[in-house]
Design goal:
The protein has 404 residues and is an all-beta fold. The chain is 0% helix and 48% strand. The two termini are 37 Å apart.
Length: 404
């Protein structure tokens, strides 16, 4: 079977070359039995944010009350919660009790902060700081163990670069800020000061403080990896037309859903849903397609090939799982909608066993923003935006993982 990944060893996507995987996947893993669904995992309400453009408010709506296109996201590290407010071009850092202690903001789109000091970074300025920065269009954010912030920003159209090989514009770069909020540098494909990225789908940081940047192209995903110093490590391309199939049966239709990086191991997880045509027994003809099953494969970044997979659980009906990420021990966290007020959380190990199933209380009524973040230890944090306020909540799902 051909390996659908391509490793980037040079300084341009044009230098990517195809890696071939000969033979069958060894050691196919089977899904195990887990706990019955139904138990509710307690939700902890950390704090609430008003809607607006003050330094401690979340700007969700444009001037015409429409929802903006820029993402709003949340990340949590060591009890500090960072909220990326794309529509307001600012990053807010809060304690777990909702006290604003960091602000990086675009003065063009925000009023001058009142509660945070802007002057200098001396000891006298304290720990609560505001830093002006000229974001163009803030996107995804990430934070490492040093509390260095990574912020995706979209370049102006005049600075975008067309890539003939990928067939997309390269118009994203990632700024790095130190733990005081001061700009360090920016990252591109080759590392510090490199070529802009295509559309950034997600970012996360591994246990070793390596940054994973998952980008999307017309053909699929490209994952880039960088050292804590910003040096390029490797890149891997996942093409939609080179996905692994469960068998040689041509009836399967693979759909590439998600790509996330491992946290302990040098891995890239790839979630694929497999659909099949449904036949009408009476007419003997196809009458649509339906989900057959889904898998999460992983690719070894050192070898550049698929090493195994887990089969996702199947319920009484179709369960469309969202792969949120991996926590310590390479435990996979998956979410599936149960109802308009609940989401099912499933935690699996890389042997295919379901370790835990829990229900999370998340009301969809009047919801305008929903962003989840899984930290390394296994705490699941969410930013939930509604018409009248935003809420930052978390679930202590880390307590569901095996003890170290």
């Amino acid at each position: 079977m051909a390996d659908p990944t391509r490793r980037a060893s040079g300084l341009s996507p044009a230098l990517f070359f195809l890696l071939l995987l000969s033979g069958l996947f060894p050691g196919f893993l089977l899904s195990g039995c887990g706990e019955p669904p139904g138990a509710v995992l307690e939700r902890e309400e950390r704090f609430r944010l008003g809607l607006g453009f003050l330094e401690d408010e979340l700007g969700l709506f444009a001037g015409d009350d429409s929802l903006p296109r820029q993402p709003n996201s949340v990340v949590m590290r060591d009890g500090l919660v960072f909220v990326g407010n794309g529509s307001a071009n600012k990053i807010m850092g809060f304690t777990s009790y909702g006290d604003l202690v960091r602000l990086i903001y675009q003065p063009r789109d925000n009023p001058r902060p009142v509660t945070l000091a802007e002057a200098g970074f001396s000891e006298a300025s304290g720990t609560r700081r505001a830093v002006p920065f000229s974001f163009e269009n803030l996107g995804r954010i990430a934070v490492d163990s040093r509390r260095f912030l990574y912020a995706e920003d979209r370049l102006p159209r005049t600075r975008a670069v067309w890539d003939d090989d990928l067939g997309v514009y390269l118009n994203r770069q990632i700024f790095r800020f130190d733990n005081n909020g001061q700009i360090v540098d920016y990252l591109g494909q080759e590392g510090t000061g490199g070529t802009p990225f295509p559309f950034v789908h997600s970012m996360n940081v591994t246990r070793r403080d390596e940054l994973a940047v998952i980008t999307r192209t017309r053909e699929g995903f490209i994952a880039f990896f960088y050292s804590p110093e910003g040096d390029f490590l490797t890149a891997l391309e996942i093409d939609r037309d080179r996905l692994p199939l469960p068998s040689e049966d041509d009836g399967y239709i693979p759909v590439l859903n998600e790509v996330v990086a491992g946290v302990d191991e040098p891995r890239l997880y790839v979630k694929i849903s497999y659909y099949r045509a449904q036949k009408d027994p009476a007419a003997g003809k196809d009458h649509g397609i339906a989900l057959d099953h889904a898998r999460v494969y992983w690719i070894d970044l050192v070898e550049g090939r698929y090493e195994g997979f887990v089969e996702l659980p199947r319920g009484n009906g179709e369960e469309h799982f969202e792969l949120v990420g991996a926590a310590r021990g390479e435990h996979l966290f998956l979410l599936s909608r149960e109802s308009s007020s609940r989401i099912q959380l499933v935690i699996m190990n890389d042997q295919g066993r379901v370790l835990r199933r829990r229900s999370l209380e998340v009301s969809e009524e009047d919801m305008t923003v929903r962003s989840f973040h899984l930290c390394y230890d296994g705490v699941l944090t969410a930013l939930l935006g509604y018409h009248d306020e935003a809420r930052v909540v978390w679930w202590r799902s880390d307590r569901l993982l095996p003890q170290l």
